[in-house]
Amino acid sequence: MKNTLTSVILSIKPIYSQAIIGGTKKVEFRKKKFKRNVDKVFIYSSSPEKVIIGYFTIKEIVEDSPRNLWETFHNVGGISEIDFFEYYKGIDIAYSIVIDKVFKFEYGIDPIDFLDKFCAPQSYRYVEEKRLLTAPTRNCLISLT
Fold first, then answer.
1. What is the pLDDT of residue 67?
2. What per-residue confidence (pLDDT) applies to 4?
3. Which residues contact 108 (CB under 8 A, 6 or more apart)?
4. Residue 22 to residue 31: CA distance in whole angstroms
5. CB of 98 within 8 A of CB of 59?
6. How many C-beta atoms lie closer than 10 Å to residue 75's C-beta?
7. Cα dihedral 84, 82, 91, 38 in deg (nearest 10)
8. Which of 30, 45, 64, 128 is buried deepest, with most CB atoms within 10 A?
9. Residue 137 above 50 pLDDT?
10. Of 15, 29, 3, whose CA–CA distance to 123 is shortest?
11. Structure pTM?
12. Do 144 and 106 contact (CB within 8 A), yes or no?
C-alpha cells in the first residue's frame, strides 16, 4: 500500500478554532490518532458557527500520557488545566497535534456545499482536499504563519 498523505476535517469548538486561527493555540489535543498519514487538518468550527474556517498543516503528532502532554504543551495549548484533565478523564494515552502553518479562508465554507449529507464529525472525517478547495464559495486563502 502506498504511503500517501491525506486531509481530515476536525470538529473544533469555536473558542479553540478561533485560537488556532489567531495563533495562540499551537497544538490540538485529541483522544484518538488518525489511522492514515494526515498532513492537513481542515478546521470545522462547530456550533453555532458550523463552517470550515481554514486549515493547518501538521508539524508532528505526539503520543503520551495526558500528564506529560500537559507538562509539555500547557503554555501553547489554549485550554485551562481543569478543562484539559476533564477532557482526558479516564484516558491513559493522549495525542497532541502540533500545528505547523495556519491558513484562514476569507469566508467560512459550509460543508454541505461539497459533502453530501454532511454531519459534523465527533472526532474527524477524511476529506478529498481537491473537492474542498474547489467548493462553490471560491475562497481566498490567507496565510497566517
1. 98
2. 64
3. 45, 49, 51, 52, 53
4. 23
5. yes
6. 8
7. 0
8. 45
9. no
10. 29
11. 0.84
12. no
| Residue that has been written with the C-alpha cell 469566508 in this structure | 107
C-alpha–C-alpha distance, residues 70 and 77, integer Å: 8
CA distances from 98 to 27, 32, 43, 48 (A): 5, 14, 14, 26
Q: Which three cell numbers stand for residue 64?
A: 503520551
Evaluate whether 46 touches 16 at the Cβ level (below 8 Å). no
The dihedral formed by the CA atoms of 26, 43, 68 and 59, expressed in degrees to the nearest 10 = -60
Place of cell 494515552: 93
The 3-state DSSP class for residue 113 equals helix
CB burial of residue 17 (10 Å; 0-12, 13-18, 19+)? buried
- Grid coordinates representing 89? 478523564
Beta pairing, strands 5-12 & 37-45: parallel
Q: Where do the DSSP E strands lie in the chain?
A: 5-12, 27-30, 37-45, 51-64, 94-109, 124-127, 141-143
Q: CB within 8 A of 11, min separation 6: which ones?
A: 44, 46, 120, 121, 122, 123, 124
